[in-house]
Task: structure prediction
Amino acid sequence: MNKEEKKQELAARAAWMYYVAGLTQQDIATALGLSRQVAQRLISGAREMGMVTVNISHPVTRCMKLASELQQKYALTLCRVVPSTGLENEAIQQMLAVEGADVMAQFIAADNAQVFGIGSGKTLRAIIDALPWFERPQHQCVSMIGAIARDDSGTRYDVPLKMAEKMQGKYYFIPAPLYADSPEDKVMWCQHQVYQRVAERALNADITFLGIGEVGLGCPLNAEGFITDEQVRTLEAQQVAGEMLGHFFNHQGERLHGELDTLLTSVPLCSHTPRKVYAFAGGEKKYHAISAALAGKWVNGLVTDEDTAVKLLAETQA
Result:
């Protein structure tokens, strides 16, 4: 047994003790001859490696009712709502990850070959981390977004690759930066045969899983170096509400056009989409972006949180 296999076995042992036997972290540390800090890291690592899945047998009735109402009002084909009242954002994101993983797992479990279009971001990465391991080599994961920043660095959230690893399938990536240096540069990237083949595969994906991003100084696109502070201010002047794959839209869900459109290389999205596009997003920071994405019908599936669902329903009833 190599070092990595020993680490995984130890993590699995700690997870069994914690989640099944109900031992405390200190009990586990004592039993395994480790420090409490190491035991804690093993338990956390077991979740990240997909060894631990959560199944709550009692449905949260209010969340189910909110999901049904959201699904009806926004003509969604899929909607899930997780409890969030009284919780901090970090806890909400963890609950979204567990619920999102449950949604994805239903599609991954299919025996017939599926092509999954995958976006990027911290929420999607957390969902993939929460996924169990599958043996589905017939499936494919296709990136919907270029992952190279202006300084030539890559994103820390290479979600499609991680998902492909979880199901042992193939991974196809967009060989381009998210934003080209010039319109001419964009044409060069997008005319490449590899880009065109991958983009076509993504456009014909059976299901697309995306995040919904807020836009402002310090937002992920800005913090990761994809858009500058000046570009953020320009978007704010246009009343930007959110973005998906670098496609910006206002509070009415209408696409915002500008300089960045001439540079964007990610796979095209459209409002009133006929494709199966399922989004995962929640928390107070993302409320306006989620509301706008629903208003413009950029998505037809949503996994979100209780407080956001209540606000969305109150808004539509106003």
Remarks:
- Residues 89-108 form the longest helix (20 residues).
- The chain has a mean pLDDT of 91.
